[in-house]
Amino acid sequence: MSRTLTGRIVTPEGLLQGVLRIADDGRIAGIEGTPLAPQRAREPGAPLLLPGFIDLHVHGGAGRDIMEGGDAALQVARKHAEHGTTALLATTMTAPIEDLREAFAAVSALCERPQPGAARVLGMHLEGPYINRGKLGAQPDFVRPVSLPELQELHALAPIRLLTLAPEVPGNLDAIAQLVAAGFRVQIGHTLGTYEDGVAALARGARGFTHLFNAMTPLHHRMPGMVGAALAHAEFAEIIPDLLHVHPGAIRAALRSIPCLYCVTDSTAATGMPDGEYKLGRQPVTKCLGGVRLADGTLAGSTLTMDRALRNLVDAIGVPLLDAARRVATNAADFLGLADRGRLTVGAWADVAVLDRDLQVQDVYIQGGVSDVAHAR
């Protein structure tokens, strides 16, 4: 059914006061309006229409974890849709192959047949097992070198849109070009690699960095590390703007250095849930004081949602709203090569987050369909 939405529309060309028309096929049929100065976006009156948020690093939510299999991914996708996320990558943990098979098989049907009220699951982010044992973070120790046959087996179950690896692990750097040629998008993460390792990985076809600053060698002026490689050379990188994983000053530095920096939540089963005990893959984790940690205090993902990420960028860090909208939607779509998501433009999917002037989610449209879960929080 065609629909018309009215408000202040954040488009690639700027801010408009006008109408957005949704065609019967769920795509944007037209946008008409009067240009507005960006600083008028949060004046009282009409709602804000932003591109639906795209989250490329989602482990869980609503008490469920992607590694559980079953209907966990559906429940996770519904929880994140409540917060304006219209598309996501289901993200797996470092795990034995049998656990990965189970998780991939369970997500497969959701990739093929989107469900009403749930964010569109675009595929999988394989965060490990091809990482460095010395930078596990909250990952369990089932690490191993890159295996193309293993990847192809998993990809046949559900599409791998992104994989994280540590380039300094023997064999991994040489595998990057082969992975890219096979159609896999590669990110650098959970790494003890040097600046030179990062530069070499980018030269071979790696395109981004997994949760920048976290679980990688830091920047020092005589040993720039993997963070230095990202700040000096990256076009894309993901970052967790919960203000716990990364200091606001470091986020500002990344915003100035990396043109297409984009936000992710790295969310866990604890997202949208009260304090208590949850699972992150095989790992028991505790939600307390706004964070999620292992028993030894290691940060273990987050409870962040993408609407909170937007508010943190705008209200805590001072990013202009139109730029922040790109950081929670457009840049992630561009990283995946998706020209029909992450932007409000004619012909794109009508993935729309409707916000009030306080940037609180009022309604969510996913491929043109209104989601009634936005009021379930």
Task: Describe the 3D structure.
The chain has two domains: 64 residues, no CATH class; 289 residues, TIM Barrel (Alpha-Beta Barrel), CATH 3.20.20.140. It is built from nine helices and 20 strands. The strands form five sheets. The chain has a seven-stranded mixed β-sheet with strand order 3-2-1-4-18-19-20, with helices on one face. The chain is globular, with a radius of gyration of 20 Å.
At a glance:
With 377 residues, this protein is α/β, with parallel strands linked by helices. It contains nine helices and 20 strands.
Task: Tell me the layout of helices and strands.
Layout: E1 3-11, E2 14-22, E3 28-36, E4 48-51, E5 53-58, E6 60-61, E7 64-65, H1 72-81, E8 85-92, H2 97-112, E9 120-127, H3 148-157, E10 160-165, H4 172-181, E11 186-188, H5 195-204, E12 208-209, H6 225-233, E13 236-239, H7 248-257, E14 260-263, E15 276-280, E16 283-288, E17 291-293, H8 306-317, H9 321-335, E18 352-355, E19 361-366, E20 369-371
Parallel strand pairs: 1-4, 5-8, 8-9, 9-10, 10-11, 11-12, 13-14
Antiparallel strand pairs: 1-2, 2-3, 4-18, 6-7, 15-16, 16-17, 18-19, 19-20
Keywords:
2 domains, six-stranded parallel β-sheet, single chain, 9 helices, seven-stranded mixed β-sheet, TIM Barrel, 377 residues, alpha/beta, 27% helix, 20 strands
- Tell me, rounded to a whole number, the average pLDDT: 96
The total domain count is 2
User: Judging from the principal axes of the Cα atoms, what is the shape?
Assistant: globular
Strand content: 25-35%
Order of helices and strands: EEEEEEEHEHEHEHEHEHEHEEEEHHEEE
CATH-assigned homologous superfamily of the largest domain: Metal-dependent hydrolases
- CATH T-level fold name of the largest domain: TIM Barrel
Low-confidence stretches: none
Briefly note the structural class of the backbone: alpha/beta
- Give a short account of the largest sheet: 7 strands, mixed
Helical content band = 25-40%
| Helical stretch tally | 9
Query: How many beta-strand segments?
Result: 20
Using the CA coordinates, give the radius of gyration: 20 Å
* CATH level-two architecture of the largest domain: Alpha-Beta Barrel
- Identify the CATH class of the largest domain: Alpha Beta
Strand arrangement within the widest β-sheet reads: 3-2-1-4-18-19-20
Distance between the termini: 26 Å
